[in-house]
Amino acid sequence: MSVPYYSSYGQLAVYSSIFGLAVAVFVSLRSIIMVELMGLDRLTSAFGLVIMCQGISAFLGAPIAGSLSDTYGNYNAAFYLAGISFALSGISCIPLRRISRWENERAERKKARETAAQAPVEIKVESAETLDLQTIDSSVDESKS
Questions:
Q1: Which DSSP symbol is given to 79?
Q2: For residue 127, what is the enclosing H or E element?
Q3: Which ranges does the record mark as transmembrane (predicted)?
Q4: For residue 143, what is the enclosing H or E element?
Q5: Which of 78, 99, 105, 132 has the largest count of CB atoms under 10 Å?
């Protein structure tokens, strides 16, 4: 977003170096972040969707930038649009960790409920003479609730 304000080659070189390092860190950590947020079992699907979205952006970005430069006579609008897009994508990533934690906790609670519902009821009988059906019925009712 700030590229149009750089008037010298040195300023552009410093900006490009910082931007390149930041993008390299993201590319290096992308799969680790996806495993942390989505889980290892969904890594291939998540990675495929991310790469598809990047491909669509790369495919559409150049014609849109060219159209903006033709309309306004310079590349400033294209750089502003690119900067705003980067900023919005970064802002949209802020709640991802909290959403992932919430979904994992919800899945664990659901699994715990299912496990508790499927747990077998164990009835111990000392002898056939002391068997009381009323007691067995009440203990089964208590274990269900």
A1: H
A2: none
A3: 12-33, 45-65, 77-96
A4: helix 133-144
A5: 78
CB < 8 Å & 24+ apart, contacts of 67-76: 74/4, 75/4, 76/4
What does the pLDDT profile of the chain (145 residues) look like in tens digits? 677 788 889 998 998 899 899 889 888 888 888 888 888 888 899 889 989 998 998 899 999 999 999 999 998 899 899 889 888 988 988 888 888 889 889 989 988 888 877 766 666 666 555 555 555 555 555 555 5
Residue 79 has a CB neighbour count (10 Å cut-off) of: 19
Q: Is 4 exposed, middle or buried (0-12, 13-18, 19+ CB in 10 A)?
A: middle
| Radius of gyration, alpha carbons of the chain | 29
In this structure, what token pair is assigned to residue 31?
A: 């799969």
Determine the Cα–Cα distance for residues 144 and 39; give it in Å rounded to an integer: 33
Q: Could you give the C-alpha distances from 55 to 49, 68, 92, 126, in angstroms and in order?
A: 10, 20, 19, 71
DSSP codes, 24-76 = HHHHHHHHHHHHHHH-GGGHHHHHHHHHHHHHHHHHHHHHHHHHHHHHHSSSH
